[in-house]
Amino acid sequence: MNPTDSSPFSCCTPHPRRAFLADFGMGFTGLALSALLADDGVQRAAAEEPAPAEPLPPLPAPRAKSVIWIFLSGGYSHVETFDPKPALNEHAGKTFDKTPFENPLNSPLHRARFRSVPAEEINVRDVYPSIYPMQVGWQKHGQAGIEMTDWWPHLATCVDDLCFVRNMWTTDNDHAAENQIHTGRHRLDEPQPSIGAWATYGLGSINDNLPQFLVLGGPTRSDTRQSIDSYYLGPQFAGVPLALDPNNPLPFGKRQAQQTAEQQQREFDLVNRLNGLAAVEYPEDAELRARIRAYELAYRMQAAVPEAIDFAQETAATSQLYGLDNDATKVAGQRLLAARRLVERGVRFVQVFPSPYGVWDSHQKLKDNHTRLCASVDKPVAGLIHDLKQRGLLEDTVVVFCTEFGRTPGLEQRGGGKDGRDHHPNGFTIWMAGAGLKAGHVHGATDELGYHALGEGHYVTDLHATVLHLLGLDGRRLEVPGRRRLDIDHGRVIPEILA
């Protein structure tokens, strides 16, 4: 570290921080290392990067500094949220082949965008042919007259700031799709780093006193850890789950009650000396490097993290804006308010799970479930958009609102089902807002019944590519030697939604 740094690590580090990072290189080459070390003035990787076979296009100009990625686990129904389909009401109870529209089950897109884990002969998902009507009304909102259902009265007031993508698709028809929308890989394939890890790997930190990738409310289960993981990029780029308790925001994140500050400093000094010796002997040990950085960061975070999530500094009006005064909206409101406070303090990527695992998975009682769940997040999410906008933060923050897949236009009939929809990867809707995006805009569509994403549609990594583009990154340059990714992993920027 810099010898003038006040951190307890500065007194015993054998090399200045710049020299340590330059000498050991952190094992990376190419743009990512260059960007990561730019703040330290270390550009060694740029000189060592091999020339590409073909000239790469120039990097996009960054439009955003930070990302707030809001994920609703379980799969909300696109046709009862942001892609209303009146034809479902008109043809309710009919089978697909009895409507004037092409039977979506006969479309080649059905198999092209569907990869079932169970054997095909026993898998019945996504093929329910009896049309189930919409369970809520809908209206047009905003100057552009964008359709939304009546379950989003607060978010409807923000519609002129939102950009909807209605032709998303994915391939996993089960809840491993929660990982897929964050990593781009089906669960039968090799795992890949999450979008949050790629963003922070490519850009590094704005605030050295806070983690660059923080997670609120998740990961929702142990088997969804992939959604925030960094894999071969190194553990320092993985998401850090944060509890919204200023007294204990991180496990082991504060000094023990019986330990003085002087004792803690001596403990850190000893650990750092040992780590420094080990780093010289094992310069390619990614876990060791991450551990050294974690000790450094942990010391600085003891003051920075509690302050960042201390809502006592907020006004009563702001608390009401996010719904903190209502038990139904309080949890989501706290997480989204914390997200605003974190990006305000320079956190690069904040991933928010405003709802528990799988609760949007409305196989039954869709109307009851979605009525309650939309009400739990509608006001907090709208509050976030209004708050970011009034503070000028929407100009350099990208907000992403997504889920893992949509829900079937047909009635789910397993187990005598009569009031729900099954998983639907073939077409669904997400929306974005903020820096570099068209506002009050709808891109893409599904067919009249909400079954297939029309045209080429957008696989989930197109969303990744667009977010990276807005941050000033080209995902195709973020390659790690020996880990060349597939073309679909990179995705393609969605130019139609860029301002």
CATH architecture of the largest domain: 3-Layer(aba) Sandwich
How helix-rich are the residues, as a percent range? 25-40%
How many distinct domains? 2
How many helical elements? 14
Largest sheet: 9 strands, mixed
Average per-residue pLDDT, rounded, comes to: 85
Folded structure, characterized:
The protein is an alpha/beta fold and 499 residues long. The chain has 2 domains: 8-55 and 262-302, no CATH class; 66-202 and 208-243 and 309-497, Alkaline Phosphatase, subunit A (3-Layer(aba) Sandwich). It is 31% helix and 11% strand. The chain is built from 14 helices and 13 strands. The strands form 3 sheets. Strands 1, 4, 5, 6, 7, 8, 11, 12 and 13 form a 9-stranded mixed sheet that branches. Strands 2-3 form a two-stranded antiparallel sheet. A hairpin with a 4-residue loop joins β2 (138-141) and β3 (146-149). The protein is globular and about 75 Å long.
Task: Give a concise summary.
With 499 residues, this protein is of the alpha/beta class. It is built from 14 helices and 13 strands.
Question: What does the secondary structure layout of this molecule look like, with pairings?
Answer:
Elements: H1 17-24, H2 31-37, H3 44-48, E1 66-72, H4 86-90, H5 109-112, E2 138-141, E3 146-149, E4 162-169, H6 177-183, H7 195-203, E5 213-216, E6 240-242, H8 261-281, H9 286-308, H10 316-321, H11 327-344, E7 349-352, H12 366-390, E8 397-403, E9 406-407, E10 423-424, E11 428-434, E12 441-443, E13 458-459, H13 460-470, H14 487-490
Parallel strand pairs: 1-7, 1-8, 4-12, 4-13, 5-6, 5-7
Antiparallel strand pairs: 2-3, 4-11, 8-11, 9-10
Helix pairs in contact: 8-9, 11-12
